[in-house]
Amino acid sequence: MRRPAVLVALPFALGSCATSPGAPDGERASSPSSFSTSSSSPSLPPAPGIAAEAVLLRTDEAVGGRFQVRITATGNEPFGVRAVALAVPGLAPLPPTPVTAEFVRGRVIDLPAPYGRPDCAVAPEPAAARLAVVRGDGPAEEVTVPLTGDVPARVHAQECAGEAVAAVAELAVTVLEAGEEQLTGRLALRRTGGDEPLTVGRIGRSVLVDVEAGELPARLEADAGATAVPLTFRPATCEPHVLTETKQPYVFPLEVAIGDASPVVVDLPVDDALRVALGDLVRRVCGGA
């Protein structure tokens, strides 16, 4: 899918190391990872006085490319965090994100942490956060804190699923035509590589908009260069609180399978033209709701 940050100068650089497509709230099911975790998985030693959990909020899904590092102070000594970076094998490291967060025992604060492109040949474990921690008047020190939770594995699987689909076909919504109470278009699939068929099984609604797809499942055959599926969008709700509060108004989960592999769920591509057209549709139908 992150919060106000204050830039600080650090004396060091932090190193690198679902619902189904028909779900009404637009949330996706995470794709199954090709890596399994078990008691034999590598682990990291705990950080004294600090616990961290990886959390994916709806705002993160809306923005994309990040999740939250939920820090809990478990010790008696107060401390501050001045920067956070992810250290997750299989996700390219990015520069640390400057933050200003102060902790006393029991305090819990979410810190936004972006992640880079996936390396799908590497298992996303052990996952950790690298923090620039200050205690009292002392200098910042780098502290590696193990990350609990399955979010890194879910994110890695989701990103790899998207890359696998992109390696076979480009997906785009084209030929938009606005009607009084609907918007029509076509989901175009254009082969970009590979020699396996690609099947679009289902497409789910977003929080605000229903979508109806004709001729599903649609299949881009191994020897085909392109195919297309007609789409019709209609507002799913005009409830004022939904219109004003949703963080993911136009996220449509799309179920796709490559060859004989199990289906994965990716987002229907929503470019600026489609985003504007969907917004106009909702305003046109819902009016002053």
Features:
single chain; seven-stranded mixed sheet; 289 residues; four-stranded antiparallel sheet; 4 helices; Immunoglobulin-like; alpha+beta; Lipoprotein
Describe this entry's structure for a reader.
The chain has 289 residues and is an alpha+beta fold. It folds into two domains: 50-149, Immunoglobulin-like (Sandwich); 161-286, Immunoglobulin-like (Sandwich), CATH 2.60.40. The protein is 16% helix and 36% strand. The strands form three sheets. Strands 4-3-6-7-1-2-5 form a seven-stranded mixed sheet. A four-stranded antiparallel sheet has the order 8-9-13-11. A hairpin with a 6-residue loop joins β6 and β7 (141-148). This is Lipoprotein. It comes from Blastococcus saxobsidens. Residues 20-47 are annotated as: Disordered.
What value does the average pLDDT take? 85
Q: Please, how many domains?
A: 2
CATH topology (level 3) name of the largest domain: Immunoglobulin-like
Shape: flat
In angstroms, what is the radius of gyration?
Answer: 22 Å
Head-to-tail CA distance between termini: 27 Å
Bin the helical content.
10-25%
Q: Unreliable segments (pLDDT under 50, ≥5 consecutive)?
A: 1-41
Give the strand order of the largest sheet, numbering strands 1, 2, ... along the chain: 4-3-6-7-1-2-5
Alpha-beta content class:
alpha+beta
CATH architecture of the largest domain: Sandwich
Main β-sheet description: 7 strands, mixed
Fraction of residues in β-strands? 35-45%
Order of helices and strands: EHEEEEEEHEEEEEEHEEH
Q: Helix tally?
A: 4
Protein name: Lipoprotein
Organism: Blastococcus saxobsidens
